[in-house]
UniProtKB/TrEMBL annotation:
Keywords carried by this UniProt record: Membrane, Transferase, Transmembrane, Transmembrane helix
Protein name: Squalene synthase
UniProt-listed InterPro entries: Isoprenoid_synthase_dom_sf (IPR008949), Squ/phyt_synthse (IPR002060), Squal_synth-like (IPR006449), Squalene/phytoene_synthase_CS (IPR019845), Trans_IPPS_euk-type (IPR044844), Trans_IPPS_HH (IPR033904)
Function: Catalyzes the condensation of 2 farnesyl pyrophosphate (FPP) moieties to form squalene.
Organism: Phaseolus vulgaris (Kidney bean)
Annotated EC: 2.5.1.21
Cofactor: Mg(2+)
Pathway named in the protein's UniProt entry: Terpene metabolism; lanosterol biosynthesis; lanosterol from farnesyl diphosphate: step 1/3
Record field: catalytic activity: 2 (2E,6E)-farnesyl diphosphate + NADPH + H(+) = squalene + 2 diphosphate + NADP(+); 2 (2E,6E)-farnesyl diphosphate + NADH + H(+) = squalene + 2 diphosphate + NAD(+)
């Protein structure tokens, strides 16, 4: 019912949503027959449906490598995330995880739901990993080793300063950016880019997730997880969990805006990284999550709902981004439009207003100087009301036809 209401409010979401649904079904039908690869791709769909769709952009060999890279790091992340595991047990596993991926007999039961299944049957991932090319294996092992060591470091260390925050995000996401760049290079499709740019790609996504997931992380049982740096939140409240209480709403939003402003510092590097990509499938694979990130930041900025529940882009807009992101012109257009949305939400009385506006102006300037804004598709920010009634009528007609067909052919179900 919620989806129908959303479509009636944003009628031109309908076609991209339909295409996304068809793409998801087609992706599930293309799961390889070999048991270990079938497990890997089935698990990929369970732990991240959006990533499972985006990964379909890639060629077979690179897609397999990225799939295994994602699942290995997801398994590593499952160990880190499980707050019920004692530190003296968790730290050695994180540090040695890069060796475990070569061992088909190793497993460690932790996590919940689909993540527990992944950990219990991780031998399938190891089997698939061992079938990858040596250059892919070496890239995955290197990043897993460095990430595991970084995670182990922060198990015993709080995120106090902004430098700590950047370091933590480097270990859990910046290294993903470096690893993907290595895999792209190993495939022969791309040049190896500067580590700093790859790192920014990861940090932009990770900081967005940390901002969006505040409430989930702070309410984690048996122990809350705290990734917002004390250097930022201590300017507004005495304890990080105080941000979720209604009496601190004004300070909470100011702190949130401070966090968003910090994340925006990586946007220009991300644009530089994407503009250098040559392979269209790799470009789309990289561009779609980056657009989702700046869109989510625009949604979260100045939004008290971050401290009350789940804030995320509506599914129809996500479908549009996946469907219509084809060229760098589309990326520049999306970044410019979302930066404009953010700019319109900045309150001049916000403590970080000047800094926020400065970052947004820099992003908009980069987009303008590309010379491609006039070639973009305006699918992110547009007035949909002009033809909304027509789309609603068309939707009602289509739904009526579908229902008429189903009732006329009951045995087909």
């Amino acid at each position: 019912m919620g989806t129908l209401r959303s479509i009636l409010k944003h009628p031109d979401d309908f076609y991209p949503l339909l295409k996304l649904k068809i793409a998801a079904r087609n992706a599930e039908k293309q799961i390889p027959p070999e048991p270990h690869w079938a497990f890997c791709y089935t698990m990929l769909h369970k732990v991240s449906r959006s990533f499972a769709l985006v990964i379909q952009q890639l060629g077979t060999d690179l897609r397999n490598a990225v799939c295994i890279f994602y699942l290995v790091l997801r398994a590593l992340d499952t160990v880190e995330d499980d707050t019920s595991i004692a530190t003296d047990v968790k730290v050695p596993i994180l540090i040695a995880f890069h060796r475990h991926i070569y061992d088909r007999d190793w497993h460690f039961s932790c996590g919940t739901k689909e993540y527990k299944v992944l950990m219990d049957q991780i031998h399938h991932v190891s089997t698939a990993f061992l079938e990858l090319g040596k250059n892919y294996q070496e890239a995955i092992e290197d990043i897993t080793k460095r990430m595991g060591a970084g995670m182990a470091k922060f198990i015993c260390k709080e995120v106090e300063t902004i430098d700590d925050y950047d370091e933590y995000c480097h270990y859990v996401a910046g290294l993903v950016g470096l690893g993907l760049s290595k895999l792209f290079h190993a495939s022969g499709s791309e040049d190896l880019v500067f580590d700093s740019l790859s790192n920014s790609m990861g940090l932009f996504l990770q900081k967005t997730n940390i901002i969006r997931d505040y409430l989930e992380d702070i309410n984690e049982i048996p122990k809350s997880r705290m990734f917002w740096p004390r250097e930022i939140w201590s300017k507004y409240v005495n304890k990080l969990e105080d941000l979720k209480y209604e009496e601190n709403s004004v300070k909470a939003v100011q702190c949130l805006n401070d966090m968003v402003t910090n994340a925006l510092m990586h946007a220009e590097d991300s644009l530089i990284y994407m503009s250098a990509l040559r392979d269209s499938s790799i470009f789309r694979f990289c561009a779609i999550p980056q657009i989702m990130a700046i869109g989510t930041l625009a949604l979260c900025y100045n939004n008290i709902e971050v401290f009350r529940g789940v804030v995320k882009m509506r599914r129809g807009l996500t479908a549009k981004v996946i469907d219509r992101t084809k060229t760098m012109a589309d990326v520049y257009g999306a970044f410019f439009d979302f930066a404009s949305v953010l700019e319109s939400k900045v309150d001049k009385n916000d403590p970080n207003a000047t800094k926020t506006l400065s970052r947004l102006v820099a992003i908009q300037k980069s987009c303008r100087e590309s010379g491609l804004l006039s070639k973009r598709k305006s699918f992110i920010v547009k007035n949909e009301n002009g033809y909304g009634s027509f789309m609603i009528v068309m939707l009602v007609i289509m739904v009526s036809i579908i229902f008429a067909y189903l009732f006329a052919n009951p045995h087909n179900n």
